UniProtKB/TrEMBL annotation:
It comes from Smutsornis africanus (Double-banded courser). Gene3D superfamilies: Vaccinia Virus protein VP39 (3.40.50.150). Coiled coil: none annotated. This is MT21C methyltransferase. One of its GO terms (biological process) is methylation.
Length: 221
């Protein structure tokens, strides 16, 4: 049941235009911190997508409802790392994950933006959706308070493994926050599957950007 009355928002211009010799660096401000993100044109995961902006903005604005301080947070499909950096600034123990080819740029962004701050040191790890979860993230050791995901659903073949990954990490007590630009019918089909598995609420919509932000928790009988 995804019938809710979400709050209607627009993405704020939180990035600062800079005259820069490097076309690939974007400066943002979240939670009182300057964040500099290096994008790369080689990979999907190396560009800041609008869902990441929406989720970062929402986390910053709703710290009382979703208090990340000292919480264990896993980001799947972290891309450039913006959301993970914001979660880190908000006080979380962050593990940012993505495909192997994205990790170098992801690690660079996360380390440069968090190295001199008084906060929990974030971790960057490889996570291929649906693969090696039991080996790499055994349930006995790993429990997350929050799973964050932004713009992980688009025209790709790994939607079922993605859903399985969300289901794997979403234990009782875990909150999944997923922001996504809805472009294709497959996006809505994924949403429907998510609603069938989890208790799902649409927290916010950004109509100008076609973004929905959802909260999902595991169904407890």
């Amino acid at each position: 049941s995804c019938t809710d009355s979400p709050v209607i928002l627009k993405i704020l211009q939180n990035w600062v235009p800079r005259v820069s010799h490097y076309f690939d660096k974007v400066h943002y401000t979240y939670a009182g911190h300057q964040i500099v993100i290096q994008e790369s044109i080689e990979h999907f995961g190396a560009v800041v997508w609008p869902g990441a902006l929406a989720l970062s903005q929402y986390l910053e604005a709703n710290q009382e409802q979703f208090n990340l301080k000292d919480k264990k947070v896993l980001e799947i499909g972290a891309g450039t790392g913006l959301v993970s950096i914001v979660a880190c600034i908000l006080g979380a123990y962050v593990t940012a994950t993505d495909l192997p080819e994205v990790l170098e740029n992801l690690s660079y962004n996360i380390s440069t933006n968090t190295q001199n701050m008084n906060m929990h040191k974030p971790e960057v790890r490889k996570l291929v959706w649906g693969e090696g979860l039991n080996e790499d993230f055994p349930v006995s050791t790993y429990h997350y308070d929050f799973i964050l995901a932004s713009d992980v659903v688009y025209h790709h073949a790994a939607l079922d493994p993605l859903l399985a990954t969300m289901a794997y990490f979403c234990k009782p007590g875990t909150v999944l926050l997923w922001a996504n630009k809805f472009r294709f019918s497959t996006d809505y089909e994924f949403l429907e599957k998510l609603c069938n598995i989890f208790n799902t609420t649409i927290l916010a919509e950004f109509p100008e950007s076609n973004i929905k932000l959802l909260k999902a928790t595991v169904r407890e009988n």
